Hints:
Layout: H1 10-41, H2 47-54, H3 59-71, E1 92-95, E2 100-103, H4 114-124, H5 132-135, H6 156-160, H7 166-203
Subcellular location: Nucleus
Enzyme class: hydrolase
Domain RTR1-type: 52-136
Amino acid sequence: MLPKNVKINEEGLQKRLAQERERIRLEEQRRRSIYTAICDLCDPVTEEVLMENLKVLDVASWNEVVEERFLGRICGLPTCSNSIAVDFSKKFVIDKKRKMVFGTDSELNKYCSDNCLGISRGIQSQLWLEPLWATGEREPKQFTIPTNSAEFLSDMKAKASSFQSAPQIVKRLNDLRILDRVESSSDSEVENKEEDERDEREFLPG
């Protein structure tokens, strides 16, 4: 029950309800436009189609595009149609060219080449940080597709330093195998010794 001295402004209430409905409608519309753009870019597209879809994308949705293409075993750059070799049963990949070991789902493993990776990074750097459905209408941008991907790969070596090199990983795996064999051998020796002692107690006079 409302207090008797409280009056409801029906006109103001209806206005606020209408505004809320419109806000929800626009948010759903913007979410759908982002979803449609992501779906469009999951397949290889022309530069014109890419540019058109960039208008509604943000950094996170670009990552979704790359991830979906990765799951489909195709290069993460939407304008590239090259396939990528991915073995999802393995957790790590040994890159002999870079002499690195990284996770199967690493960014380095989602592109057919460093050039495509650099171009993708260059495009993503131009996108908005916040999604369209959260910001609403925003000032249009002039997007460009980088021609020099090298400038967006300058941090590759820095990131590579956080990974262990292939020889280091192989050595560690070999060490673990050796340790496992030693422990297994030790366990067997203990078991054999216990069996011998039981046999002695059973057959020798006390």
